[in-house]
């Protein structure tokens, strides 16, 4: 199972998918692309607190994808 987490102002949003389920993968990819187009940054993490890497394409084999909102200066 994979999980996409979005850190946002209203709390975390989570989307889970089974890499073997085409419909779940398509739904998670759609959410991924929506947040990416809104300026969020995606990181594929190890799921065990290890260092992640920034990604720009959905990886259905990822255990966890974490989205961070865009930074705002002020």
What keyword list fits this structure?
single chain, 74 residues, alpha+beta, Ubiquitin-like (UB roll), 5-stranded mixed beta sheet, 36% strand
Q: Can you name the CATH architecture?
A: Roll
Mean pLDDT: 89
Which residues form runs of ≥5 with pLDDT under 50?
A: none
The major sheet is characterized as: 5 strands, mixed
Q: Would you tell me which CATH topology applies? A: Ubiquitin-like (UB roll)
Helix run count: 1
- The percent range for helix content is 10-25%
Give the end-to-end Cα distance, rounded to a whole number of Å. Answer: 39 Å
Helix and strand pattern: EEHEEE
CATH class: Alpha Beta
> What structural class is derived from the secondary structure elements?
alpha+beta
**How many beta strands in the DSSP annotation?**
5
Quickly count the domains.
1
Short characterization:
The chain has one helix at residues 22-37; strands at residues 2-8, 11-17, 41-45, 53-55, 64-68. With 74 residues, it is α+β, with helices and mostly antiparallel strands. The protein has a single domain, classed as Ubiquitin-like (UB roll).
Describe, in plain words, how this protein is organized in 3D.
22% of the residues lie in helices and 36% in strands. A five-stranded mixed beta sheet has the order 2-1-5-3-4, with helices on one face. It is an alpha+beta fold and 74 residues long. It has a single domain, classed as Ubiquitin-like (UB roll). It is globular.
What is the topology?
Layout (H helix, E strand, L loop, with lengths): L1 E7 L2 E7 L4 H16 L3 E5 L7 E3 L8 E5 L6
Parallel strand pairs: 1-5
Antiparallel strand pairs: 1-2, 3-4, 3-5
